[in-house]
Design brief:
Order of helices and strands of chain B: HHEHEHEHHEHEHEHEEHH
CATH class of chain B: Alpha Beta
Helix content of chain B: 25-40%
Distance between the termini of chain B: 29 Å
Oligomer: heterodimer
Helix content of chain A: 10-25%
Largest sheet of chain A: 2 strands, antiparallel
Number of strands of chain B: 8
CATH topology of chain B: Rossmann fold
Strand order of the largest sheet of chain A: 1-4
Order of helices and strands of chain A: EHEEHEH
Shape of chain A: elongated
CATH architecture of chain B: 3-Layer(aba) Sandwich
CATH class of the largest domain in chain A: Alpha Beta
Structural class of chain A: alpha+beta
Number of domains of chain A: 2
Number of helices of chain A: 3
Strand order of the largest sheet of chain B: 2-1-3-4-6-5-7-8
Strand content of chain A: 5-15%
CATH topology of the largest domain in chain A: Alpha-Beta Plaits
Chain lengths: 138, 318
C-alpha cells in the first residue's frame, strides 16, 4: 500500500478498520468483515516464527482452551469446534500446545519447515500416565 | 441497558468474534492480548476504547495499521482514563439533548493502561475520573514493570524483583519497596465495583467484567499480566506462570463492591508455596542464592498475611 509521510498526516488522523459500513461487528465473523488495508488483520507476522503449532483433529476434544488462551487470535473456532490455525497471525509462542489437555496433545510444535502430512504421520501415540514428560520434536 | 451476553461455558465463549486483530506487535506469548480478548469478548455491545501509552498501545497502533475493530483513541501516557471519560460525558450530553443517532445502542466505555500508566503516571487522572463518577471501566494490565521502555521499576514492582533501574547484584536484591495496593485505593474512592482478575481464570474474569459492565459508575479492574520478556520466562509458559501466581495467592482473585463488601472469588484447592512462583521467573533468580534467601520466607509471610487479611474482611463483610 502507498504510505503517507509523517508530515502529510492531518492532526487527529483516523484509521478506518473497515471499507464500508459494518452494522454489528461483534457478531460478524472475520471472513465476513470488509477489512481495509489499515487493519493489522491484513498484515502478517508469520516470519516471527521459528516453530509452528500443528493441529491433529483426531485427538481434539474441542475444549477451546487453545482458543481462549491464544494471544494472537490465531486459533480458528467455528460453531464451538476448533477448525484450524491462522498461520498469518500466529507468532509461534506455543501457549496452545501447553494448555492442550488431551493425551497425546492435539497440538504440537514443529519446526517452521516441517511438512504437515509428515508431522501427522509421526504424531506420538497415547502415553501412560507415569510418563509426565511430553514428547518433543527435534 | 442492553442485554448481557450469555456465556455459560468455554464453548459458548468461543463463538465470540474477536474485535482485536492479530499481527499486532506484542511479544509472542504476551498476556496483554489474552486479557484484552477476554474483556472485549465479554460483551456484544459497541465499544469505545482508549489505551494509555504502554506495550498495548504502541504494539496495536503501528503505522499504517490498527489492531482494533472498535472506536479506539490513541492518547497520552497519563490520560487514557480521561479520554474515555470525556467520550462518556459527550455521550451523556448527546443523550440528554436527544441527538444520538442510534439511541438504542448503548456503548461500553473501557480504558486500558499498563501498571506504569495506572499506578504512577496516570494515577491523578484515574482518581479524577472515579471521583466524577463516569460510567466507565478502567482495566489495568498489571505486569509490574515498565516493559515497553526496557523494564524500569514501577510502583507496582514487588520486593526483590530485578528491574533495569533496580538491578539485583552484590549490594542490592533489586526492588526495595512493596507493591502499591491499588485495589484498596480504588475501592476507597467508593467505586461500585473493583476487582482483581487473571487471564488464566477466564470464567472468573468474564464474570467480573460483566459485573463491571452492569455496574453504574466507574469500575476498576486490576488484571495480572505475566510478562514473558521482563519476568523472564519462556513464551509458552504464560498461562502456567499465571496459574502459579493465582494458586500461590501472590495474586489473590477478589472483588470489592461499593468499597465496602469484599468477596474472594477464587480459592485454590492446593495452595502452592510462593517459592515455586518466584523460582519460575528470571527476575527473582538472585533470591535463590545464600545471600538473599531470607527474602523468600519474607515473601511467604507477606502473602500469608495478605490472604489472612482478605479472608477476615470477607468474613466481616466489610
Amino acid at each position: 500500500m502507498e504510505k503517507k509521510g509523517w508530515d502529510e498526516f492531518e492532526i487527529g488522523a483516523m484509521l478506518r478498520t473497515f471499507d464500508g459500513a459494518v452494522t454489528d461487528i461483534a457478531t460478524t465473523l472475520p471472513e465476513n468483515r470488509p477489512y481495509s488495508q489499515s487493519s493489522s488483520f491484513t498484515a502478517s507476522v508469520a516470519d516471527w516464527r521459528i516453530e509452528k503449532p500443528l493441529f491433529n483433529k483426531d485427538y481434539c476434544i474441542d475444549c477451546q482452551f487453545c482458543w481462549v488462551y491464544c494471544p494472537d487470535m490465531s486459533i480458528i473456532s467455528r460453531d464451538k469446534k476448533m477448525v484450524g490455525i491462522d498461520f498469518d497471525h500466529c507468532k509461534g509462542c506455543g501457549i496452545c500446545v501447553q494448555v492442550c489437555p488431551t493425551n497425546p496433545k492435539s497440538l504440537l510444535m514443529f519446526s517452521e519447515q516441517k511438512d504437515e502430512e509428515a508431522a501427522l504421520a509421526e504424531w506420538p501415540k497415547k502415553e501412560k500416565k507415569d510418563q509426565s514428560e511430553e514428547p518433543k520434536e527435534d | 441497558m442492553s442485554e448481557m451476553k450469555k456465556i455459560k461455558n468455554l464453548k459458548d465463549f468461543s463463538t465470540s468474534a474477536d474485535r482485536f486483530e492479530g499481527a499486532n506487535l506484542l511479544c509472542p506469548g504476551c498476556a496483554h492480548s489474552i486479557i484484552v480478548r477476554e474483556v472485549l469478548n465479554a460483551t456484544n455491545d459497541d465499544l469505545i476504547l482508549a489505551a494509555s501509552t504502554g506495550c498495548l498501545e504502541v504494539c496495536t497502533a503501528v503505522y499504517p495499521y490498527t489492531s482494533w475493530d472498535a472506536s479506539w483513541i490513541h492518547i497520552g501516557f497519563e490520560n487514557g482514563s480521561s479520554a474515555v471519560a470525556g467520550a462518556e460525558a459527550m455521550y451523556k450530553a448527546l443523550k440528554t439533548k436527544g441527538r444520538l443517532k442510534q439511541p438504542d445502542r448503548v456503548p461500553k466505555f473501557v480504558a486500558f493502561g499498563g501498571d506504569g500508566a495506572t499506578y504512577d503516571i496516570g494515577f491523578q487522572w484515574i482518581s479524577g475520573c472515579f471521583e466524577r463518577g463516569h460510567n466507565m471501566m478502567y482495566v489495568c494490565l498489571d505486569n509490574e514493570v515498565y516493559a515497553n521502555t526496557g523494564g524500569q521499576r514501577s510502583s507496582s514492582t514487588p520486593i526483590g524483583a530485578s528491574a533495569t533501574t533496580t538491578p539485583a547484584g552484590r549490594v542490592s536484591y533489586g526492588e526495595k519497596r512493596n507493591k502499591k495496593d491499588m485495589m484498596a485505593i480504588m475501592a476507597a474512592h467508593g467505586a461500585p465495583y473493583v476487582a482483581q482478575v487473571a487471564p488464566n481464570k477466564w470464567k472468573d474474569m468474564v464474570a467480573k467484567i460483566q459485573k463491571g459492565f452492569a455496574a453504574e459508575g466507574p469500575v476498576y479492574i486490576n488484571a495480572m499480566s505475566a510478562c514473558t520478556t521482563e519476568w523472564k520466562f519462556a513464551p509458552e509458559d504464560t498461562i502456567s506462570i499465571s496459574d502459579l501466581a493465582t494458586d500461590s495467592l501472590v495474586f489473590p482473585l477478589y472483588e470489592i463492591i461499593n468499597g465496602t463488601q469484599l468477596n474472594i472469588t477464587y480459592r485454590p484447592k492446593n495452595i502452592i508455596p510462593v517459592r515455586d512462583y518466584l523460582g519460575a521467573q528470571g527476575r527473582f533468580k538472585h533470591l535463590f542464592t545464600k545471600q538473599y534467601e531470607y527474602l523468600i520466607d519474607e515473601w511467604q509471610t507477606r502473602v500469608d498475611a495478605k490472604w489472612d487479611y482478605l479472608q477476615r474482611r470477607e468474613e466481616a463483610g466489610v
